[in-house]
Automatic annotation (TrEMBL):
<feature type="transmembrane region" description="Helical">
    <location>
        <begin position="46"/>
        <end position="63"/>
    </location>
</feature>
<dbReference type="GO" id="GO:0031901">
    <property type="term" value="C:early endosome membrane"/>
</dbReference>
<keyword id="KW-0967">Endosome</keyword>
<comment type="subunit">
    <text>Component of the ER membrane protein complex (EMC).</text>
</comment>
<dbReference type="GO" id="GO:0000139">
    <property type="term" value="C:Golgi membrane"/>
</dbReference>
<keyword id="KW-0813">Transport</keyword>
<keyword id="KW-0472">Membrane</keyword>
<keyword id="KW-0333">Golgi apparatus</keyword>
<dbReference type="InterPro" id="IPR018937">
    <property type="entry name" value="MMgT"/>
</dbReference>
<keyword id="KW-0732">Signal</keyword>
<feature type="signal peptide">
    <location>
        <begin position="1"/>
        <end position="22"/>
    </location>
</feature>
<keyword id="KW-1133">Transmembrane helix</keyword>
<dbReference type="GO" id="GO:0072546">
    <property type="term" value="C:EMC complex"/>
</dbReference>
<keyword id="KW-0256">Endoplasmic reticulum</keyword>
<dbReference type="GO" id="GO:0022890">
    <property type="term" value="F:inorganic cation transmembrane transporter activity"/>
</dbReference>
<comment type="similarity">
    <text>Belongs to the membrane magnesium transporter (TC 1.A.67) family.</text>
</comment>
<keyword id="KW-0460">Magnesium</keyword>
């Protein structure tokens, strides 16, 4: 089943690249004919939107199952006195040592 989802993801990316190429071609056509750009044609827009949805489906299924985030697991081993104690913020080289002499 994973191979199927990877194939769907690959087809989604190919379709998205094709939509981008078609959009670039449409813009160059408008420049060559000196026409104003009012927006993309609906078929290119729908292809890009459908490709995005297919890519999202493929990524969600290729990534695997989500794991639960347990925020309380880290807090169980700490007491309230050490909860805000962050050793990485300790600084011993500061201007206060000049007042100690």
């Amino acid at each position: 089943m994973a191979a199927f989802h990877k194939l769907v993801l690959s087809l989604g990316f190919l379709s998205m690249f094709h939509a981008a190429y078609s959009a670039a071609q449409h813009r160059s056509y408008l420049r060559l004919n000196e026409l104003d750009f009012t927006g993309l044609p609906s078929d290119i827009f729908l292809q890009a939107l459908l490709s995005l949805l297919i890519i999202m489906y493929g990524v969600l299924n290729v990534a695997g199952n989500f794991k639960e985030i347990k925020a309380s697991a880290d807090l169980d081993s700490k007491s309230w006195e050490t909860f805000r104690n962050i050793p990485s913020f300790y600084t011993f080289s500061h201007r206060g040592k000049s007042f100690a002499a």
